[in-house]
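Q: Here's a chain of 122 amino acids. Please give me its 3D structure as tokens.
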Amino acid sequence: MNETQINLKTTVLDDGLGLISAAGYINNEGGQAVADAASELVGGGCQSLVIDLDGTRIINSIGVSILLEIMEKIMEGDGKLAFCNLTPTIAKTFEIMGLDQYAGIFPDREAAVTSFGTDGTA
């Protein structure tokens, strides 16, 4: 995989909680792939999501805007969104953009998943 491609894996962790593992460049194509994965999980009954960005080193402005759209859709359904394994640069970008006010930011997957109750709500 080169840096311009995205590799995604989706998992249903618990009733109402889905996980998207993303590695690669989150741009318009990579961001759309994440959005499609989120829609699939939400359509399958996941109210809340953890997006694990381990292996993601670059997110451009279009990628950030797509993540904001995912956040809005999750919040409209009274769900919660958490991100984990952010690089320092991505974490700072999320802070500057205000994403950390609406989504949980966690150092690793275990911390993100633990922040949710068994029904997928935080």
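Q: Can you summarize the key feature?
A: Residues 6-114 form a domain with the Transcription Regulator spoIIAA fold (CATH 3.30.750.24).
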